[in-house]
Write a structure and sequence with these properties.
Blueprint lengths: L4 H6 L7 E4 L3 E5 L7 E7 L15 H16 L6 E4 L3 H4 L8 E5 L9
Antiparallel strand pairs: 1-2, 2-3, 3-5, 4-5
Bound molecules: adenosine monophosphate and zinc ion (ZN).
Length: 113
């Protein structure tokens, strides 16, 4: 995916503040944090959004959540955190490569506006 920002970050073509990386996923800090701790976990494989999760590729979602739990323990987020996936226009998705936001470090309002 030549024009995908997160594919370029996954390939190391655009720098990011990496937290965790393996052959399947990358976790890095959001460039415009919305909470004291705000990072993203992305599959390295290009999946445009949650709409494109299928029986063939859904295992990556389980792996993403394993990685989130691992990072939460390492960052000592014992007070909790929120995992967010924005999908499509009304979901507020701006980057068309599947990603999960992890927000932490303060009490977060619910529901979102
Ligand atoms: P969304 O609006 O759910 O598609 O989230 C996209 C997120 O990517 C936003 O929170 C942006 O701040 C973040 N973002 C955009 N460009 C970069 C970048 N180069 N490095 C890290 N995060 C980024
Ligand atoms: Zn991509």
């Amino acid at each position: 995916m030549m024009d995908c920002l997160f594919c370029k970050i996954a390939a190391g073509e655009i720098p990011s503040k990496k937290i965790y990386e393996d052959d399947k996923v990358l976790a890095f800090y959001d460039i415009d944090p919305k909470a004291p701790v705000h990072f993203l976990v992305i599959p390295k494989q290009h999946i445009p959004s949650a709409d494109y999760i299928t029986a063939e590729n859904s295992a990556i979602v389980g792996h993403v959540f394993e990685v989130i739990a691992k990072i939460a323990a390492e960052l000592k987020l014992e007070k909790g955190y929120r995992v967010v996936n924005n999908c499509g226009e009304h979901g507020g998705q701006t980057v068309e490569h599947l990603h999960f936001h992890i927000l932490a470090g303060r009490s977060l309002a619910w529901p979102p506006g």
